[in-house]
Amino acid sequence: MTRMKRNAVLLAGTVLTLVLSAGLAHAGTEEGNRGEDAHVIGQPRVLEQIAEVEQEVRAVQLYNRGAARFNNGDLDGAVAPLEESLAENPEFVEAHLALAWIHLGRDDPARAYPHAEKANELLPENDTIQRLLFDALWGLGQYDRALPMLDAMAASGKAAVQVAQRSYNAAVRDVHSGDLSEARRHFEQALALDPNLVAAHRPLGEIKLGEGEHEAARRHALIYTEAKPDDTQGLTLLYSVLVKVGDEAAAAAVLERIERVNPGQSVRLLIARATVNFNEGDFAGAQSALEMALRLQPDHPQSHYLLGMVCVSSGDIPQAKEYLTRFLELAPDDPEAESVREILRSI
């Protein structure tokens, strides 16, 4: 857990001593050397400075109490003394920073925001504060303010790994909102900041595959599956890319990997591929995909049914009868069973 720095109370006491010394020296050197009268004239300002320093001492003491609780894991107990510290010194930046961090950790961006905003006002070049302010704005859904901050933080190069995670989160939001152009930009931004952010490679590869950048998509898929060899989504991306580039042998090997880690998924992929081929009039491609599905699961009813329909369409009636008959043996009560019986009677 992040630890808070504690301000030494002795430091504030030293300041008090210095203020007293400076005030008395000033009183003894008033123009005209009026002696006692000069001391009386200087005294109100000295007392004012003493009061200011005493207030600062109280602010530091309260902050230290909150810091101690924070560092001991008592975040709830840290809030009150930190808030009291700010009542004594509203510009105590460390207290604002701590309260912003605590409230964000509680998933309460509304309470975190004013503290992050004030801290940023007091220390506008501090990258830690800027990230907290960004997080508060993001949590409040103020994306129009947060996103320019994200680009500025990325451009600064500071805390690259932390900023990369925020770019990744922005990209995920872009995907969910359907803005794939911005999603691509944010995923690429994240990887530029942190090349080891493996999670970004799969969705970026999927976007590039959809945009026809097959070789770039394959690079992302290979990086992702090397890091996560048993991830079904990553393997599915790699399979899809390999099919697109025409590397059937490599695609078949990936299907076997998918079947090992997620039985049934490879057959679903092959059926989806066969359906696309069939609708495009590529009966040979559809048949090839479905035959591969049967090699993986010989008694898969849908594969037999689809192969039978492909053979009917291509004119291979004997083979069609064989597949459709086997489909009825495996799934006699399937919703398509009656229509298949009618087809068999008619061919």
Write structural notes for this entry.
The protein has about 350 residues and is mostly helical. Among the domains are: about 205-260, no CATH class; about 275-345, Alpha Horseshoe (Serine Threonine Protein Phosphatase 5, Tetratricopeptide repeat). It contains 18 helices and no strands. The longest helix is centred in the N-terminal third of the chain and has 36 residues, at about 35-70. The radius of gyration is 35 Å and the shape is elongated.
Give a short synopsis of this structure.
The protein is mainly alpha-helical and 347 residues long.
- Would you state the CATH class of the domain at 277-347? Mainly Alpha
- Give the structural class: mainly alpha
Query: What is the name of the CATH superfamily of the domain at 277-347?
Result: Tetratricopeptide repeat domain
Portion in strands? under 5%
Biggest sheet details: none
Average pLDDT figure: 88
Shape, principal axes of CA atoms: elongated
Low-confidence segments: 6-41
Element string (H = helix, E = strand) = HHHHHHHHHHHHHHHHHH
Rg computed from alpha carbons, rounded to a whole number of angstroms: 35 Å
Helix content: over 70%
Give the CATH architecture of the domain at 277-347: Alpha Horseshoe
Number of helices: 18
Number of strands: 0
Distance between the termini: 73 Å
CATH-assigned fold name of the domain at 277-347: Serine Threonine Protein Phosphatase 5, Tetratricopeptide repeat
